[in-house]
Amino acid sequence: MKLHEYQAKQVFREAGIPTPASELAESVEAAVAAAELVGYPVAVKAQVQVGGRGKAGGIELADDEDELREAADSILGMDLKGYRVERVLVEEAVDFADELYVGVTMDRGEGKPVAMVSTRGGVNIEEVAAEDPEAIAREHVDPAFGMHPFQGRKAVYDAGVDPAVARDVSSVLSTLYDLWEDKDGADAEINPLMVTADDEVIAADAVFNVDEDALFRHPDLAEMGEEGEFAESELEQKADEYGFDYVRLDGNVGIIGNGAGLVMTTLDLVDHYGGSPANFLDVGGGAKADRIANALDMVFSDENVDAVVFNIFGGITRGDEVANGINQALGEFDEIPKPVVVRLAGTNAEEGMEILDTSLVTVEETLESAVQRAVEYAGEVTQ
Ligand code: GDP
Ligand code: MN
Fold first, then answer.
1. Which residue ranges does the chain devote to CATH 3.30.470.20?
2. Atom number of ligand 1 nearest to Cα 55
3. CA-to-CA dists, residue 292 to 128, 361, 367, angstroms
4. Active site residue 189
5. What is the pTM of this model?
6. Does the CB atom of residue 41 touch ligand 1 within 6 A?
7. pLDDT tens digits, residue range 301-325?
């Protein structure tokens, strides 16, 4: 589970990591009030859980109220990589001389936690790791002992951090490691950790992802997760509600299947036949009418979807049950909003195909033909 920047900063601040003064705002007026509390100049930052907000136009600096109004107005409500911005963090702007990176994560290759420091902060650290891995100093930690203070100092030294701030940076790194361990973090990251002209070190951004399976041990973090949820995209919220595994993609062929492998295969075939998948949607086992109806609700309410393909393999879930579910769910509509193609295989597939109401759906015998048909339908709409 990912925390929002403002939440991660709260966690970091409570642990003693310096962060800029900031206030959350949901409207332009609230942003103005927040800026007065914080003091100009301020940074206005979109609170959505995507990286690279800076480049995507989700962060603006404002020196006075006029600039702030303009910035808040343009960022609030904007679409940032598929997320609608509902809230901004209005934050004391930091006048920085340097941007560093510090992070803690699990190095699965080594089977150990790793603490990282780089002087190449402020940019996408994955790119730095790919182009110039030497630019990131790494210290592996024995989890039985935790991070020794000398390890933090060594990482900071190896990274080539200015000695004037080395002590403060290694203290931030130690605190971040302890937090990561105590709070069952998956990734903890400060990028950038800003260094001011008078050698102050301050966390200008904050990422904290928590291991979801350990959330029961951290009711405070679980609560933050619930509070942040309304910022999820509408479709992701629905998927959570319905208990589906769902990933939105950018094509126009909606895909529904019962099993992750089945759905992946369908995605590949849609691509193979020249189409473009709109989503990954696994309804899981036991595809009863209400589950089918929920799955259809998801793909029908995705404005990108022009046609839908069902790929169902009957195992414990019988084909005739699924067919009844599809008929029932589609029977609710006066008009089917988007063409639906169904492929059924496995247990009671023949019975299922006979049951399916062909005035509601197109039935295809093979997966290949079903996918081709859906791609055709989707293509007809876009032409
Ligand atoms: P991200 O793009 O989503 O990772 O958002 P960040 O919070 O890391 O901000 C991206 C960049 O915006 C930073 O590297 C800075 O260059 C700039 N920025 C963010 N906050 C401030 C600030 O308070 N003052 C100044 N001058 N620049 C900032
Ligand atoms: Mn950042």
1. 96-228
2. 2
3. 44, 14, 19
4. yes
5. 0.70
6. no
7. 998 899 999 999 988 878 888 899 8
